[in-house]
Each structure stands twice: as structure tokens, then as C-alpha cells.
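Retry 2 of 3 after timeout on previous attempt. Resubmitting C-alpha cells to design endpoint.
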């Protein structure tokens, strides 16, 4: 993996995301972007539920914020295939360049993750004092959640990047459906314990679920719902590590196979008038 290529790809990712306006205005956009989700949680769990100090409220608030980090990384990285092929029409040139396409894709994902973390941080800086949220911060779960969680989200992104490499349709509606569906499965706002048997099992072994739970744990030092409550941290960490690493390995293999097939079939410069 070329470090120069990776750094350049991160820079490109940030520029692509923010090139539609001036940087100060884009920072304002980053601040405002998750606010709708934040106020939705405050209204549903706080005002209607009548308690802004409950674990259930914190579960939904922090879960929705960290889902935003993971899902944004996942969906935007996968969508970069369509963006580069249809919008900028440079996909073919990127793939034949000296930088490996995986390195480029990784850089795009890192760039988006950095921007999303800035957005989340800006909002946590006002949420916690305004709502008087008392935390029990732990550094290791935070570092593990962000780094390993990014790897798992990247694995999902790679799998769908492979799908888009082999698709001659710009099926953006697929991402819209998945965004809502995965929001439920990942336990971002609702504990997976409320799901029926099969979906509960699926949620437990879905990489985003354990990652969001790890990031909650980093701020509160405990599980905020019955999901994984009573599970020793070592066992919880093992589940978190296993699901995310499997996600990455499977995604990487599918991505590499799809890339070879797309090159062979000549799909790198096909456009669909998207």
C-alpha cells in the first residue's frame, strides 16, 4: 500500500465531499447535518418519553450519532464507484494508475470518516453540557470502536463497491433502502432484544451493532440496555472483533473478484446517464 497514494486519496475524498461550497460554510453543514437525527431522539425519548436522564435516552442518542459515523463511511465509500464512473468519469484512469484501487477506496473512506467524526465531535460538545450528560469515559473502547469499527464498515463498503463495479445501473435507491433497514438491525435507536428470533441473531452478529455498542460503552462504561448486559467485556470484545474482521475479509475478497471481473467485461467506463 503506497502511503503517498493513500494520503492523496484521503485528500481527494475530503475535497470531493466539500467542493460544492466554501470551507467555513461546509463546517456549518457538518455541524447541522446530524441535528435532525439528534432532535428526533430528543423528542421521541426525551419529551414524549418524559425522561432526558434515562439510559434508554442515552442509548438512542449516542447510537444514532455513531450509526451516522459508520453508515456514512459505508455508503459514501461504496457510492464513490458510481461517483467516479458516472459523475467525474475517471474510474478507469484511477484503476490503471500507480495507486492500487483498494488504496484509493480506503482513502476515500478515511476522508469521509474524518469529516463525519468532526461533525459528531462538534455536536457532542454542545449536547453533553446542554443536556447535562454525565459520562464515564474510557479511552480503549473508543479507540477500538472507531478503528476496528471503521474496518468493519469498510468491509461492507468494499462488498457494495464490488456490486456497483459489476452493475451497469446507478441503483442509488438500494442505498436508501439499506440505510433505513440497517438502522433497525444495527441497534442504533432500538435495542436488538426487541427483535424476533432470527433478526435478533442477525443483529447480534452484524458488525455495526457491536461497534455502536462498543462506542456507547466507551462513554458510559456499561451497557445501556439489556443487549449484551451481563456479558464479560472480554467476550463482548471478542464478538466485536470477530464480526468486524469477518466483514472486512469477506468484503475485500468480493471487491477484488468484482474488480477483476469489471476490468475483464469493460465496465469501468460505462455510463448510464445518471
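Retry 2 succeeded. Sequence:
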Amino acid at each position: 500500500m503506497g502511503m503517498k497514494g493513500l494520503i492523496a486519496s484521503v485528500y481527494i475524498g475530503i475535497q470531493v465531499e466539500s467542493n460544492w461550497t466554501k470551507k467555513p460554510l461546509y463546517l456549518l453543514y457538518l455541524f447541522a447535518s446530524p441535528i435532525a437525527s439528534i432532535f428526533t431522539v430528543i423528542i421521541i425519548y426525551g419529551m414524549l418519553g418524559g425522561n432526558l436522564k434515562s439510559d434508554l435516552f442515552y442509548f438512542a442518542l449516542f447510537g444514532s450519532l455513531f450509526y451516522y459515523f459508520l453508515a456514512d463511511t459505508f455508503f459514501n465509500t461504496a457510492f464513490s464507484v458510481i461517483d467516479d464512473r458516472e459523475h467525474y468519469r475517471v474510474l478507469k484512469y484511477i484503476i490503471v494508475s500507480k495507486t492500487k484501487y483498494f488504496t484509493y477506496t480506503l482513502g476515500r473512506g478515511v476522508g469521509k470518516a474524518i469529516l463525519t467524526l468532526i461533525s459528531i465531535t462538534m455536536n457532542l460538545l454542545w449536547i453533553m453540557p446542554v443536556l447535562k450528560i454525565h459520562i464515564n469515559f474510557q479511552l480503549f473502547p473508543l479507540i477500538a470502536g472507531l478503528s476496528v469499527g471503521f474496518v468493519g464498515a469498510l468491509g461492507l463498503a468494499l462488498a457494495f463497491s464490488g456490486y456497483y463495479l459489476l452493475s451497469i445501473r446507478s441503483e442509488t435507491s438500494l442505498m436508501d433502502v439499506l440505510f433505513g433497514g440497517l438502522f433497525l438491525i444495527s441497534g442504533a435507536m432500538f435495542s436488538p432484544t426487541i427483535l424476533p428470533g432470527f433478526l435478533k441473531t442477525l443483529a447480534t452478529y452484524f458488525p455495526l451493532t457491536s461497534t455502536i455498542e462498543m462506542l456507547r460503552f466507551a462513554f458510559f462504561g456499561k451497557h445501556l440496555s439489556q443487549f449484551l448486559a451481563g456479558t464479560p467485556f472480554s467476550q463482548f470484545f471478542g464478538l466485536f472483533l470477530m464480526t468486524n474482521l469477518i466483514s472486512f475479509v469477506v468484503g475485500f475478497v468480493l471487491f477484488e473478484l468484482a474488480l477483476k471481473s469489471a476490468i475483464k467485461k469493460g465496465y469501468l467506463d460505462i455510463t448510464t446517464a445518471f
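Attempt log closed. DSSP finds eleven helices and no strands in the chain.
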